[in-house]
Amino acid sequence: GTIPSVALPSGESRETVDSLYVSFLLSENSPAMLASRDAVELARSVSMTGSNYEFVVMVWEACKANSTKLKPADLQMLMPCMQSNLNDPNFASAPDGFFDANKCRSSAPSQCQGELSKKLQAAGWEHEPEYNTGTSNFSLDLAQPETRTAVEFHGPTHYVRVLTDNGFHQIDDDVMNGPSRWKASVLRKLGWKVFIFPYTDLDKIRNGEKSIIPRYIEKLKNAGAVVSDDGADSPASA
Asked: Concatenated DSSP letters for 45-85?
């Protein structure tokens, strides 16, 4: 029930490895393998890139037929498969225990997220922290549901790491990682206007830059958000 290792020439990409695994599983078409942790993890990755719809459907069906083999962590890993294919009839029903395993659990906002929330609130944008989108089961850092506007605070873990010449990993603040790009893309397809607030902008605010919060407030207004004029010029929003 596990995917065998694949020998690759040095330098091959993760995408090549994924493609070889998918090809192998499609050729085997074994429910035991398709409902394994390895296959579920691969389906999660593939669904985020949209690279092999047929494979994701096959894993989904195998998991429905063999749900007793799956642990809650496996079912949680399947969630992006459904989120990437909302309103698709192939995903209209789910494996037993899927929705229980994926119930949204409230979490406390991070300190940085809370700091940003207070500044946007003071600037006139009323919102809900840690808002759950319902059927699509996304959690939004800060959201105004009635206008479908949202702000996602992105700390360093939302960005890719690159290997420098001296062998150290360094965060590339200009490139979001795959899961973060995927989440924003799906939310926008669902009609949400999502604005990414990187941690580097919060650092600039802490260092005295005054223009950042007004700039985001303007973006939110242009996207149809309700912003109170009373808070727009508040010193607390700086």
From this structure: HHHHHT--HHHHHHHHHHHHHTGGG--HHHHHHHHHHHHTT
Question: Which has the closest alpha carbon to 65: 88, 92, 36, 96?
Answer: 96
**187 three-state secondary structure:** helix
Between CA 228 and CA 126 the distance in angstroms is: 8
**Taking the model in full, what pTM does it have?**
0.77
Nearest to 59 by CA among 100, 86, 95: 95
Measured CA to CA, the distance from residue 210 to residue 107 in angstroms comes to 30
Residue corresponding to tokens 């192939």: 90
What residues contact 195, with CB distance under 8 A and at least 6 apart? 149, 150, 151, 152, 216, 219, 220, 223
* Distances in whole angstroms, Cα of residue 31 to Cα of each of 24, 28, 50, 100, 146: 13, 9, 22, 23, 43
Interval 59-73: pLDDT, tens: 999 999 999 989 999
Which residue, among 93, 134, 150, has the nearest Cα to 142 in the 3D structure? Answer: 150
Residue 7 — pLDDT band, cuts 50, 70, 90? very low
Backbone dihedral region of 209: left (phi > 0), alpha (psi from -120 to 50 degrees) or beta? beta
